[in-house]
Amino acid sequence: MSEIAHITAAIFKRAGKARRFVVAIAGPPGAGKSTLSASLHELLPEGTSEIVPMDGFHYDDIILNRRGLRPRKGAPETFDFAGFETLLKRIRSGEPDIAIPVFDRSIELSRAAAEIVGADTKFILVEGNYLLLDEEPWSRLAPLFDFTIFVDVPRNELERRLMERWREHGKSDEDARAWIASNDMPNIERVLARRRPADMVIG
């Protein structure tokens, strides 16, 4: 059985007959959370799952500039935590047709109401860096997840993937290295050093 099939089977077993089952997929920047979420979405029965990315709750650059946080974009304090927490509570309650925002990296903006979580959606795949962060207020998310997965990747591989990502988004190698050193790596260290235990850790 492949690793992704093993993860899917574990989710199915844990979910049982639950009407809604919320899975947290956490890990540092560049770990492959979005790839894993997409793979699980493909393997789960059609129409039963939806991906809910934490990145949809990035503060706009206008807000970050106003608060002096633009150089730290992607750090925990640069997200609308309250909005994200409220969304997850609405999802857990089974409220029908919940609109969710999705971050568009090509324009560095969140698109409001870009996807819909329907009332009959059983598996909610929530993905983001800080879902298991053991710091206030992020630790308040713990009761909202039924199953947690942490994607653990060596730091040198994370750095390689992030270099590739920023090149694809138009940064020079010099600018990409500077951004990784000043922004991505501190976020990576924070995620790795201050995370709660996960139900499953994958590499």
TrEMBL record:
Pfam families: PRK
InterPro entries (alphabetical): P-loop_NTPase (IPR027417), PRK/URK (IPR006083)
UniProt GO molecular function: ATP binding; hydrolase activity; kinase activity
Keywords carried by this UniProt record: Hydrolase
Source domain of life: Bacteria
Domain Phosphoribulokinase/uridine kinase, residue spans: 22-194
Protein name per its UniProtKB record: Nucleoside triphosphate hydrolase domain-containing protein
Biological source species: Mesorhizobium plurifarium
